[in-house]
Design a protein that fits this description.
The chain has a five-stranded mixed sheet with strand order 4-1-7-5-6. Strands 2-3 form a two-stranded antiparallel ribbon. It is an alpha+beta fold and 154 residues long. It is built from five helices and seven strands. It is globular and about 50 Å long. Helices cover 30% and strands 26% of the residues. Helix 1 packs parallel to helix 3.
Length: 154
């Protein structure tokens, strides 16, 4: 998932529910937490429940500025209703800046707290695009998530 970076209010970015000081902000309809959006999409996809836009259309003003935790908890609620549970989370954030390493543990803990999971089941990694393309120019951030779930099929 991708959100373009724009110098709006220079307050920083939110990734995994963690506020990170930065000279740019992510542009989006909600809080633009690209990491939680990717994780929400991964959960919805693992259940064949569509994507985040199906459940929270950006055309609906109700979702403007909403914390992405709401979306993630919705996906988890759907999973629980199906008798399922999250086994592991593997999240990769691709950006030149901000640097993710200083915030990695805080991000993992934030996700763990949101989903009621133990920290050892959540991985957050970071890489860069080696200065290539729009991400290399600092114009965007990409996040990819893989989740393992157990789903009771009756």
């Amino acid at each position: 998932m991708l959100r373009l970076v724009e110098e709006i209010d220079k307050t920083g970015v939110v990734l995994c529910g963690v506020n990170i000081a930065h000279n740019k902000s992510l542009k989006g309809h909600s809080d633009a937490d690209v990491a939680l959006h990717a994780l929400t999409d991964a959960l919805l996809g693992a259940m064949a429940e569509g994507d985040i836009g199906d459940h929270f259309p950006p055309t609906n003003e109700k979702w403007r500025g909403v914390a992405s935790e709401v979306f993630l908890k919705h996906a988890q609620k759907l999973l629980t209703a199906k008798g399922g549970r999250i086994i592991n989370i593997d999240l990769t954030i691709v950006c030149e800046a901000p640097k993710i390493a200083p915030y990695r543990l805080k991000m993992r803990q934030s996700i763990a707290d949101m989903l009621g999971l133990s920290l050892d089941r959540i991985s957050v990694k970071a890489t860069t695009s080696e200065k290539l393309g729009f991400m290399g120019r600092g114009e965007g951030i990409l996040a990819e998530a893989i989740v393992s779930i157990a789903l009771n099929r009756n």
